[in-house]
Amino acid sequence: MTSVAVGAHPRLRALLRDRGAWYLTGPQELASVIGRLERLERDASPDLARPGSYLLLLDLTSQTLFNLRLCERSRGTQEISIFSPLGARLLAARAGDVVTLEGFGSGWRLLLVQVRPG
């Protein structure tokens, strides 16, 4: 099981630190990642978020925009792994989708504003 804070965006790490919350990736989310990767293999549409895509996200609570790169394994502060809870939800999403992470008090909601191929 992996904590969402590993390789997460600094704002997300700060949110976790401030709220003292941890959200873990379990078998159900890993199965979801595999299913989404299979969907992406069948659908070559450039508007779907896939490993390597650059994503522009809007935090619907703070109205803050930030950029993330979706990747298999995050190596920097602007990258998020598809195996993290947030990355798993962003995988195969398209602009206009709202991604929600439960477990952060009232939850954390992000609007995917733009997907750019990597």
TrEMBL record:
One of its GO terms (molecular function) is kinase activity. Keywords: Kinase, Transferase. This is Regulator of nucleoside diphosphate kinase. It comes from Halopseudomonas aestusnigri.
